[in-house]
Amino acid sequence: QVQLVESGGGLVQAGGSLRLSCAASGRTFRYYAMGWFRQAPGKEREFVAAITWSGLNTNYADSVKGRFTISGDNAKTTVYLQMNSLKPEDTAVYYCALDVSNELGTMAYEYDYWGQGTQVTVSS
């Protein structure tokens, strides 16, 4: 099994920044992709960003392009989501996920393992 643990969420004013972390442990895979999704109350879970195992390829939702940056550490056990210029509409529970097929999928069903989520609240 794979365990994914998110951290770094919190309350921030509009225009502020947060950095989310997702630590992976347990079963290892030779190649995999990591993604971030978010879910606001009453809404479906939506794709935010993804990164391939090599770190060379990334994908972002249009709503966060230019504001959010996904990255991974050299050990390939932690993925980060740097969120700048936050807006109230970014308020959601943020989840990290792992895709063993190492693709930059944008749909939740494409991911095999999920973390428990971390709350991000942006006040206006």
Structural notes for this entry:
- With 124 residues, this protein is mostly beta strands.
- Helix content is 0%, strand content 50%.
- The protein contains no helices and eleven strands.
- Strands 2, 4, 5, 6, 9, 10 and 11 form a seven-stranded mixed beta sheet that branches. A four-stranded antiparallel beta sheet has the order 1-3-8-7, with no helix packed on it.
- The N and C termini lie far apart (40 Å).
- The relative contact order is 0.32.
- The mean pLDDT is 94.
Q: What's the story with the biggest beta sheet? A: 7 strands, mixed
The number of helices is 0
Order of helices and strands: EEEEEEEEEEE
User: What is the number of beta strands?
Assistant: 11
What portion of residues is helical? under 10%
Q: What coarse outline follows from CA principal-axis ratios?
A: globular
